[in-house]
Write a structure and sequence with these properties.
The chain is mainly α and about 120 residues long. It is globular, with a radius of gyration of 13 Å. It has eight helices and no strands.
Length: about 120
């Protein structure tokens, strides 16, 4: 399935899977897909894969986001990363509700510590 394609080491396969996901209704993004998307956001991935995965997180209903997801996006705003990665990350973070961020803050900090 798509989750396996996201985990594929081949950038072209990952980008095709991310494009396919973009066309899916975001409510249908299952937890397994979100976990695979999260792996695509982490550093070490191709920056195009990171950027597309971050953009997809921006389409996920906030109620489905977990502290680990938000922490991964926060980590992508790091200045040493290319702007192709930190620009979409900053845009996604701007769409998040501040109270939601504060509620999850301890979980986000914990998740950032483990990365």
């Amino acid at each position: 399935g798509i989750a396996m394609k996201l985990g594929d080491g081949n950038v072209d396969v990952q980008l095709r899977a991310l494009r396919a996901l973009k066309r899916c209704p975001t409510e249908s993004l299952a937890a397994g897909i979100l976990a695979s998307l999260l792996a695509c956001v982490h550093s070490g991935q191709d920056e195009r894969v990171q950027a597309r995965a971050i953009e997809l997180f921006g389409q996920v209903p906030i109620s489905q986001l977990e502290p680990a997801h938000v922490a991964a996006i926060v980590a992508c705003v790091a200045p040493h990363l290319p702007s192709t990665v930190h620009r979409p990350a900053a845009l996604v973070l701007q769409t998040l509700d501040v109270s939601m961020l504060l509620n999850h803050l301890s979980g986000i900090v914990q998740a950032l510590d483990t990365t």
